[in-house]
Amino acid sequence: MTRHSTHIFRLLKWGRILARHGALRPIEQNPNTPPQVRRLCKFARLGTVQPREPDFAGAFRAIGPAAIKLGQTLATRPDIVGEDAARNLLSLQDSLPPVDFSEIAKAIEGSFERPLDRLYAEIDPVPVGAASIAQVHKAVTTDGRTVAVKVLRPGIREQFARDIETYEWAAAHLEAMGGEAKRLRPRLVIANFKRWTLRELDLRREAASASELAEVMHAIPGYCIPSVDWDRTNGRVLTIEWIDGIKISNHEALSEAGHDLPSIAQRLVLAFLRQAISAGFFHADMHQGNLFVRGDGTIVAIDFGIMGRIDRRARAWLAEILYGLTTGNYRRVAEIHFEAQYVPSYHNVDEFATALRAVGEPMRGKPVSELSVGQMLDGLFAITRDFDMQTQPHLLLLQKTMVMVEGIATQLDPSINLWDTAAPYVREWIRDELGPEAAIADRIRTDTETLLRIPDLIRRIEDRFPAKGGAPEPPPLTDIELIWERKERAEGESILPYLLSALLGAGAVYGAMLAGLLG
User: Which residue, 29, 210, 269, 387, is the most exposed by fewest CB within 10 angstroms?
Assistant: First the structure.
């Protein structure tokens, strides 16, 4: 187990980096920051020169790969890091200088235990992308297919394990301080971050996610997932179909190629809704670097290391919340929060509905360009504090992805109204999945499944209580006290009654003998 002093040393070292980027000052000034953390921040920044404007993204890049991933997670949590920090962290690009190709080649050969030329006819030593966890090279397989080869950075798993252990230690101590820190549940935030990251560090999981998402989206026009080369994929290496297209962030090139940018924006939003609400399985790293547009206008997604899942009940709640906000049915949105137990039951539903109205009404019917996302987030997080709502970790990835999709769609079409774009799809899904026909179908399916389980239930009851055999039932037997039971009983009783009985018995016998002699 790592010593406390080791964790403190790491935190102070990271704190110095944060201080040099001016990122500790907002933490100190936040009234919700525990006094112990505020003192630690002051100590960490002693002797440093701080810029006027804090650069959170630059600080996380300087700390290292695990911090980059953590920063991208915290970008969705303005309630924890503040609105300005969250906005700055949204610009955090997951890129690092590449690893030398000789090490990459050695890693590929070691993972497959085969020479490189047995796997790929050629592979470009210059990577097309180098991120915090892995880097990607263009290659041609021995059977002539052009592919992208993603390889984990050597030693990255061990480095992440060390850093995450310190994150867990810090989160546990922060939560133990109580107050606002406890309500925000930092331990669960780090636990989810750890789970997502460990999944990213196993490229077989990424390949499986790409395959599963391709099945989910195969019937959706205008959206594509590249195919996986399973013969050249393992835990450290992923080989996937090469994509020729224009990055979705290159608006000028898209326009020159004749693409309809508003149409792309609308299809992107609907593709996300299809994944999140209909399938409950969505691409949770949908930033601009992971989306391309082919010549025919098809949107192609890459990089499936971070995926999100939502169970059906949570999806139903989410759909009703979105639809309620778009239609102004704040009472129903409030009821859902109480049904889902997101809001403690001691609060009043009507008061919560009124609070939601104060946030939702200014957004309705306006394009994103006219909305203040900052004011909206301030209002929402004020509600979470006022109504003692705890963080819901299973929705963090969804929130992060919604922010990303909103940003990309707005850049493609500044006049897009996300509410109007989402409302028809959500309304149709609610009708199909939550309407009377769906309710009846669910009841029939549930009752049928219950009926089908009855035979198995009866068999298990018979195993527990077997039927009587062919022999007649035995007669009742007399209870006989066993000798060791008698001994146990005797040990717990006084010996005096037994002595008296013995004396009386001996006297009776002696009297009978005497009477016989005299007669």
Answer: 29
